[in-house]
Specification:
Chain lengths: ~350, ~350, ~350, ~350
């Protein structure tokens, strides 16, 4: 049994890690930390977990943390992550970091969008943890930067088109919509039930969302040419789920069938990517609670656009699920261990 | 008191007409028809109206209908509308038709997207009822074709940019999201609570939604050049509200402030159009139950796009409210009669 | 025009007062206070109000407040209210207080459930503002204590039965359910969208909710004998609305029809109380945004219980709407001024 | 591997059976029937299941059905069930019937609440499938009648109190609330998103819900004296979940702690029953997607009532999950096989 630690267990991502790991046959959670709930049983903080795991939140001194597990998930805010990760790596542990701190390979870009980086020396060896794209590197990594939720849906959705240079990168528009769990579990008027329910709006408009440099970095790798996207996130009155609607101009005269075949060729062996047949499109409620990314393709021939729809559960494939998928790869477990199972619908 | 008839009162649009007209000081509802609920009191079909109006649904013979009111709203499906409207016009009545039957000026286009038209002779005199754009013509019209819900939000959102030729029409992408009331009140598995709640998906993708020719007709008039848009509608788990997110490339180097000033110049005198100040954007929950169209503008300078957000309540400004606004214009009432009042939030 | 002040305009109740008063023909809002948003335009805090009223939040010194209006609504938390109300009364102003501070006639009971009272001398003259029950006294009052939301639904629901001694007061069970707006607009993890949506639970169980003494006080007056109820509130994943389901044993063998007739006799002239016909029962969505209280009666003959259902919008009839109804009574306006109009459905 | 058949796989209960069985290590689904979707892949009817199971809906002739599996779940409406079950039993198969047809032991009572029974001869041997109460009989049964959703929550909630005669059976009030999935997946105006969302109401009031005789039958067994309850169901704007709030008078002076201890003694060994500690109460969102029944107890000392709260997921513990639990018992599998795992929250 791999002894696993969750640093920051009391947020929505941390607790989802606990939920997934509680039914993972190869691991045991040997420590779970929370400053806010130190000493409390996790089942008292999240009654849905009661009876399913036996975890008491701890808050050990930083120096004492590394010994408590063989493998760590750091599910804390950016900037806090970089205070913790280096010492874990130095102690010889493997880490999947779920913050943004190690996702950006160009330090200058990171510091432009976030703040000063204090452990830039680790960036070079960090692997970007989009499991389907970096599988081999992830297997050998000490430190994996788990992708952001929006980037996961967007990069998986566009990868086949960019790799084959089928779309003009300068025409990419991403209109993305996320459920409220993406905002985390902190007290905030903007995410109160009465502010979100029965409503819909955009936020962080005008190309200001911090997931943009992360997406552009990976889309640029795939396209082998610099990619700039226009990205606009919206807040959905749902708990879990992201749907990204992506528009681009095709560079060549290709049929819908050939594009569908291309996606099947790229993703046919990927258990966690499901292609929608024919003219159907994905829905967030059909990936709820699962690690699937559902992708659908539509051709708008009148307007000369291809439209790709990509749906994930933002706290599973967009966070905790993909983190476990990466942990499986890093430890030689079957990649889907603890992650199989249909979405919960209705 | 103007005697007003509502043909098709039992759908969500019809009943919203009844709700709005029940507090309109210049009119009385002299007849309201419903095949399904003939003989029933409207307050028994919609208990929210109980005590607020005294209407019994009727189903008169077509020939007997015209005499029952001086002014008619036809809130029935397309194709049904064209069976009723001609006789009302022939009887000298004024009509606001809320179906799609008279919105398209080019009969061939109508018949391509819908079906054969049986009263094409009325198309020539019909005025497209986007009140803010066709105010003067509406005042003198006998027949007004009330715009579709999506077109209302999209055309109002883009009009200033197209008039001034500030955007490239070939780059327009419209990512639109609507609440479930847009699907009407018919029994349908796809709009059951359990299918829609806590979820999100696109529908009628690939440029197939029937509001497209209507939008392109009006955008073409505004741009004075043929406009083709890429339009993708999505279904929100909310009851009322449309948010359209519209992307385009600017044709000229203009500042955000100048664009904001242009919108203020275009819409500053319009009571029902509210411009979001600064970097703020509209939200459907802030127009719920009102006849407002809230518009916000965002510049994505990195990606070279202007993004316009337009929010309406789909059954008020997107249907019944705008219909009453048109009725006011056609009868010399103050344009906002019966339509003032803040949105309901929370 | 009556100059009206709203003390505490930035909570959900305060802003609903502003919304209702903005279309009231007899009043103008001469001051609206908010500590948190001092200097901000209310339309920037609540964009749904933009264009509908012109109010800037102020935070005047207590001594300067009274001069700013002729009539005041105090929509602040209990304990804060009693710091403000006495000086307004002393300055000769009329006040409707929406807190709990003046609802309980027995100071000892108030102090047992809340905390020490600092202006007990005003209790004697305060009128409990359940408009339908205390109409005449309200007309002559200087200070009206606006009822709590749950009490409004419960007292109106049970009044006819208790007055006629048709039910055994010792058997009353009230199972009440409220939307999340009842919790107010303060940042709180328990009322985040993700905690409330798609869920349901009870809270303040075991007879601990502070509305209990208020309900028992009024039910005791109606029954003319001490009444103790078992009251359990629940949190609904809706924004607005309370449904109270009330169970009791009949003391006599009376038919359902006679009870229905009794309610019609009691409430037939009340515009804001609507009795559900036959076997139908009220729904919160049918009172949303309106000042109505919908009441339905059911007989469970097998189990020997009468069940009364009472639905209100908790921030209209349960707070701001009833407060305006009381203001109308206190100033000789027609009781329904500014409050007519159907509920918003769907 | 046990070959299992699902008769009626396309309703919400049938598809939940498929979802649960798809990860059950001891069974394979050898046939799944649906009249409506004959020939369609289940993953096309329910895209959440795509990639997780390989089932094509069939509609075999009744005579050919029995051979297709060794064990059957009949998830069809009452009256349809009794047309299918007898032939399966006659063919030597074991059956869990999820309809109401075999739940009522007294044929006269069944026929009074439902309609004529055509296979009354099976009633005598049928075991009522509330797993925690009838475990030993279920193990040896050929035919198990899976309990209704409301009865599961109510009977489990009250059993300890009735067995110990701690409450007066004549005082039991059950105020129950269910999510919309309980209404099934048939096209119906009353369960459209727009009719249910942001609202709340009671239905089948006055002691008319057909789950009442089933509950009274089992409560009577537990109490060893005839029990009549007053039961009122309500419709919640959520997808999954039932919360039953149950009120009764204690017959003896007993402390809250002793009652809590009694529940722990009754249910301490039951994996699927979780007792809420201290003053906490259950929430439907904490059992979503799981087979748990969460129970909380509250004492209202002022009003002399004990209040029991019982929460389940209506289509798991209230239907498909409990059916699998019974299948496990009937086949010698560990009772929790395929059913472990925490609820999905948020």
């Amino acid at each position: 049994m791999l002894r696993v630690g969750i640093v920051g267990v009391s947020g929505y991502t941390g607790v989802e890690l606990a939920r997934i790991l509680s039914r993972h046959p190869e691991v045991e959670i040997s420590i779970a930390t929370s400053r806010q709930f130190e000493g409390k049983h996790l089942g008292d903080v999240y009654p849905n977990l009661r009876g399913c795991l036996d975890i008491t939140c701890e808050n050990p001194a930083p120096a004492a943390l590394a010994d408590r597990a063989d493998f760590f998930f750091t599910a804390v805010p950016h900037q806090t992550a970089m205070e913790i990760v280096p010492s874990l790596i130095a102690a010889g542990k493997k880490v999947v970091d779920l913050s943004a701190d190690y996702r950006i390979r160009d330090l200058a870009v990171y510091e432009q969008w976030y703040q000063r980086h204090t452990s830039g020396e680790l960036i070079g060896e960090t692997v970007y943890g989009l499991s389907e794209l970096y599988r081999d590197s992830i297997k050998n990594a000490r430190l994996v930067a788990n992708p952001g939720c929006y980037p996961t849906s967007v990069i998986l959705g566009l990868a086949p088109l960019l790799r084959e240079k089928l779309i003009d990168p300068s025409t990419i528009i991403v209109d993305a919509k996320s459920g409220a769990s993406g905002a985390g579990r902190s007290a905030n008027i903007a995410t109160l039930f009465c502010e979100v329910a029965d409503g819909f709006r955009a936020y962080k408009t005008g190309g200001t969302h911090r997931h943009i440099p992360e997406m552009e970095q990976e889309l640029t790798v795939l396209a082998d040419t610099p990619v700039t996207i226009s990205f606009t996130p919206h807040l959905l009155p749902i708990t879990r789920g992201i749907l990204s609607t992506m528009y681009a101009k095709l560079t060549t005269d290709i049929s819908r069938e050939k594009v569908q075949a291309l996606y099947e060729q790229n993703y046919g062996d990927e258990y966690f990517i499901r292609l929608c047949p024919g003219d159907t499109v994905p829905a967030t409620q059909h990936v709820r609670g699962s690690n699937f990314c559902d992708i659908g393709i539509s051709f708008d021939e009148r307007a000369g656009r291809i439209i790709v729809f990509s749906a994930i559960d933002n706290i599973v494939k967009g966070a905790a699920g993909q983190a476990v998928q990466n942990m499986n790869l890093m430890n030689g477990f079957a990649e889907d261990t603890g992650l199989r199972g249909a979405s919960l619908f209705p």
